[in-house]
Amino acid sequence: MVSKKPRIVIIGAGMAGLTAANKLYTSANSKQAFELSVVEGGSRIGGRISSSEFCGDRIETGATWIHGIEGSPVYKIAQETNSLHSDQPWECMDGIPEHPVTVAEGGHELNPSFVEPISKLFKNLMDFIQGNAIDSDGFATEILKHCARSCGPGNLSVGVGNWSRKSLQEAVFAMHESTQRTFTSADDLCTLDYNAEREYIMFPGEEITIARGYSSVIESLASVLPVGMIQLGRRVEKIEWQADGLDGIHMENGYCNNSRPVKLHFCDGSTMSADHVIVTVSLGVLKRGTSQDSGMFNPPLPSFKTGAISRLGYGVVNKVFLQLSQETTDFPFLQMVFHPQDSELRHPKIPHWIRRTSFLCPIYSNSRIVLSWFTGQEALELESLTEEEIVSGFSATVPNLLPSKPTHKSCNGTTEQPRKANK
Ligand SMILES: Cc1cc2nc3c(=O)[nH]c(=O)nc-3n(C[C@H](O)[C@H](O)[C@H](O)COP(=O)(O)OP(=O)(O)OC[C@H]3O[C@@H](n4cnc5c(N)ncnc54)[C@H](O)[C@@H]3O)c2cc1C
């Protein structure tokens, strides 16, 4: 009897699947020890990492930042493949400016001396709630001072346009909440488990972006795998596996193959058998796949796994890229402060889906491509809008914030449409 090599199939060719494939394939004696395949439902590798081009500029429709470089395997690969240098400008090459321009609805530019205490308060609150070290005495004093400022009589006297001082303070605080929502992808920050947040530890060191694009890391991981090992357009619909050993009979190409206990069913009706499967699909796919009526796993996964999958939260984050008109120059890193959705003072033409978005900024200094992030309900709503509706929403908003500056033109033609990316 010819003994067969065990077959390992990795589902998903994103960062996780390709890292697993790279590690397995480059491990000692791998070619003798097992067969390896990667099956990917989409038409490209990379999953939520995709560097692409928009109006001549390089953009990241998915992951952008290496969150801490010291000890980061992503940084190591980017460094080894010389991906951290480029002659061409790239998204966020300038990082995030220390003093962005903050403008309140109605075109009122806010003095940093007004914004910064609120920014500091918000940062301290987040640090406190996430269990990061803060100067707790100083923090308590700061909260007291802030409350005194917000609630004291001085508050009633000063304002700009139709803003009272207090409503402006609250709106700046809300702007920070919106930014924080993009970091966590939570629709509502109150739904986060801040004890669990404490377990999220970043690598130390700088946070940087990758000059030659995040996809260069993906390409490097995939480059060691032989042609044909990654199969695209192979969406898995069902995973039949054996909770209690090798009881089932598996047929593949007419060959009775009892030794492979897992059978993958693809959306085109084809199947593949395997000894081991590494599932790297996203949490959203797993949640749907383990819901009552799904049957993606047969038999269902054990309850400790389905329980963990159901308890983990996730959210939607979208990036929107727009091209500014030729005549627009020096567009700032703009922090946007809006009246709340239910305020009678809000400008009627500014769409509600922009009101919980906090910034619009060039992807690098002087680029004509500007970027904004959306999270939660608004991100979902954005997905249902046409590109014309998105452009028209921004066209109604930006002049209200930067009245003296020419606004971006409405895009037309395929290369000038806004781009959306989702998490
Ligand atoms: C807009 C955005 C910005 C982000 N910014 C950052 C950032 O700055 N820094 C950072 O570190 N992270 C960032 N992230 C998160 C980061 O992109 C992800 O954590 C990471 O890419 C996830 O990789 P993964 O392999 O786990 O999953 P994915 O990339 O989702 O890969 C899963 C793969 O499985 C495939 N698949 C799904 N279902 C099936 C099926 N049934 N059969 C076969 N294949 C299937 C999918 O097509 C996909 O290719 C961002 C994400 C988004 C969307």
Automatic annotation (TrEMBL):
<keyword id="KW-0963">Cytoplasm</keyword>
<keyword id="KW-0274">FAD</keyword>
<keyword id="KW-0560">Oxidoreductase</keyword>
<dbReference type="GO" id="GO:0005737">
    <property type="term" value="C:cytoplasm"/>
</dbReference>
<feature type="domain" description="Amine oxidase">
    <location>
        <begin position="15"/>
        <end position="405"/>
    </location>
</feature>
<dbReference type="InterPro" id="IPR036188">
    <property type="entry name" value="FAD/NAD-bd_sf"/>
</dbReference>
<dbReference type="InterPro" id="IPR002937">
    <property type="entry name" value="Amino_oxidase"/>
</dbReference>
<feature type="region of interest" description="Disordered">
    <location>
        <begin position="401"/>
        <end position="423"/>
    </location>
</feature>
<keyword id="KW-0285">Flavoprotein</keyword>
<dbReference type="Pfam" id="PF01593">
    <property type="entry name" value="Amino_oxidase"/>
</dbReference>
<protein>
    <submittedName>
        <fullName>Polyamine oxidase 5</fullName>
    </submittedName>
</protein>
<comment type="similarity">
    <text>Belongs to the flavin monoamine oxidase family.</text>
</comment>
<dbReference type="GO" id="GO:0046592">
    <property type="term" value="F:polyamine oxidase activity"/>
</dbReference>
<dbReference type="InterPro" id="IPR050281">
    <property type="entry name" value="Flavin_monoamine_oxidase"/>
</dbReference>
